[in-house]
Amino acid sequence: MAEKNAPGVVITGLGVISPVGIGKDAFWTNMSAGRSGIGPLKSFASQNLPCKLAAEIVDFNPLHYVYQKKFLKVMSRDIQLGVSAASMAMRDAGLCPGDVDPDRLGVEFGAGHIAFSPDELSDAARDFQSENPQDGYPRWGEDTLGKIAPLWLLRQLPNMPACHVAIEHEARGPNNTITSADASALLALQEAMRCINRGQADVMIVGACSSNINPLDIARISLIDSLSRQNDPEQGCRPFDRDRDGTIVGEGAAVFIVERYSHAVARGAEIYCDVLSVGAGCDGRGQENGTRGRGLVCAMNNAMRQAGIVPRDLGHINAHGKSTRRDDWVEARAYHESLGTDTDRIPVAALKSYFGNFDAGSGAVELAGSILSLKHGELPATLNYKHPDPLCRLNVTREPQRLRSKVAMSVNRTAMGQSAAAIIRAL
């Protein structure tokens, strides 16, 4: 492996809120013990929904984490999770207000579709009803519009997590939101590295958040994706298993403090890992490119080339592992094309088996899993993996195992073929 003379961009803080646990210690303890966060849906009645299982976060109270509490009324659950995880990460990094020049502190966040309840608009919609549509329009402008909360839209905008995080921590540097579904977290990390390497910031708050625990979201996802129809949590999310029948919705957020290595050393920060590279790609046009996962192949090849490593240097892969038949097949093909014969050797962990899939946030929580795996020198088992799919042929972890390398790759891919791969190294 061609080692760098010195790390460039490092991760010094981590905050995670997930169905497996709130906080990095609870998250790692439960995952290393093989405790799943998937169970029967409890937040609302599920008898009329196609999927009866979900990965829900319990005992989460944003009042414990959000500093600017007056803003809670305009924060959806997604935003609350992201802002709370960011506060955890800043504390974990040992950063207090004033420790970083606000103009040199930035935010890069991944976010996706933020659902809302029909109840929020029901009064206005009811008043708008009329046998003669023309009668409804004057009423809408004169009276009905006033029944919608003036700040209602602020709860739904995907750029609001980054805005609220910046307000919480007086981050006046670069601020951007990536909305590329499952790949958003790693793409946000890539852009944060660019900001630091361009000299625009010393420290970046990077993460992603999302929640699909919403009846409308579950109904919507069931129409465009494959949700498991199982009632047994152990049969629900089974990445790369021959008998998998779909994924499970969930919720969560993870945030990382990313900073210039020299800046971290100067302030005596504890360093989790060096971010060697982030590669990106897209399937492009044509069915063959999609079925072969060309975007993911490009992302992995680009990441390895930038990092100066070859496949045999990888200690483990943190897979996208969505647990749908098509997505897992495409992902496995991409590994074989990019990594060649090393695919059979490299351990693969699919952490969605613990907490399901939830758009942008799941990629961030998975990256947190890889970072903590490097810290503890152990790779968790992939849950519910009992019957290997002969069309995947991967070295999926069945039991926890000690890591034999300090280098890991975490990957994510969207249904439309946007892909990202991050390579990190424990120091």
Q: Notable features of this structure?
A:
single chain; about 425 residues; alpha/beta; Peroxisomal Thiolase, Chain A, domain 1; 2 domains; twelve-stranded mixed sheet; two-stranded antiparallel sheet; 14 helices; globular
Kindly describe this structure:
The protein has 427 residues and is an alpha/beta fold. The protein has two domains: 9-115 and 156-426, 3-Layer(aba) Sandwich (Peroxisomal Thiolase, Chain A, domain 1), CATH 3.40.47; 119-155, no CATH class. It is built from 14 helices and 16 strands. It has helices spanning 24-32, 77-92, 119-128, 133-142, 160-169, 184-197, 215-224, 233-236, 261-266, 287-291, 294-307, 325-339, 352-355, 360-376; strands at 9-18, 21-22, 38-40, 53-55, 105-110, 175-178, 203-211, 251-260, 273-282, 316-318, 347-349, 378-379, 395-396, 401-402, 407-413, 418-426. Helix 2 runs parallel beside helix 5 and helix 11 (294-307) packs across helix 12 (325-339).
